[in-house]
Amino acid sequence: MHYMTKQEKDMWIINIENAAGTVCEIYGSAVAKSVFQRYGANGIYNLSPCYYSEVFSDLELMVNNH
Questions:
Q1: What is the number of alpha carbons within 13 Å of residue 15 lying toward its C-beta?
Q2: Torsion 54-56-59-62 (CA) sign
Q3: Which long-range contacts (CB under 8 A, 24 or more apart) does 1-5 make?
Q4: Residue 7: what are its φ and ψ, rounded to 5°?
Q5: Any idea what DSSP says for residue 28?
Q6: Which region holds residue 47: left if phi is over 0, alpha if psi is between -120 and 50, else beta?
């Protein structure tokens, strides 16, 4: 099992926040929130780190398909 360093966690948070912000601009905040809700969270700060890559991928897919 890989444990994230603080630097890795901070990088994920920044990348997820940026992607979520872009999704909000394109589709609205409800769509961005729905991605987090699929993983049992209301936002980045109560999202389990084990889901960081999945949430980021989902958000990036939305951004890239725009």
A1: 16
A2: negative
A3: 4/49
A4: -65, -40
A5: -
A6: beta
